[in-house]
Amino acid sequence: MDSLEVNMAKNSRIESQRLILRHVTLKDAEDMFEYASDEETTYYVFDRHTSLTDTEEAIVSYFIEDPLGKYGIELKATGKLIGTIDLRVKDSEKRALIGYTLNKDYQGSGYMTEAANRILALGFDTLGLGCIAALHDERNAVSGKVMERLGMQKEGTLRHVAQWKKGEWFNDVYYSILKSEYDEMKKSGK
Predict the structure, then answer these.
(1) Within a 10 A sphere around the Cβ of 47, how many other Cβ atoms?
(2) Span 127-139, mean pLDDT?
(3) What is the residue range of 141's domain?
(4) Does pTM top 0.90 for this prediction?
(5) Considering its fold, how many domains does the chain have in total?
């Protein structure tokens, strides 16, 4: 295990004003299934879960087998899991990619921006990364707005990335933020 992995392991629980970012467990299956079974929430991110068993299998294979950098987003006030966020660090490149999903019933309240700001702090302040990026399907403008609120800059569009639902092509919009830009935002209080 290298120092990057050690630092990620030391930060397996992160708190913000309203949220706790922590490992996902099988106890979260019902909360996750609530949004993972919703076509509107999952359309741009992953295949919709059709049963609680699908969700349990996803938790084990994605979140439990390799938990570093993967967080459930829990509301402090209720203990409810409302989404997930992850920081996928490219080995020794000092770059990472953020990915996230949020239950649609909790969108529009700033929860994802709050969670992602804590992930940026982890990446830049703790892990010493130089650049953090994110992608969103160009039809999912809401996700792009989150990236903009984080101070990320739109770099371009990756066209016809893959076929998704019903044989339809989709394009990904690529955003990123450099450590120097993040530091400047912190300094200015944004």
Answers:
(1) 13
(2) 93
(3) 3-188
(4) yes
(5) 1
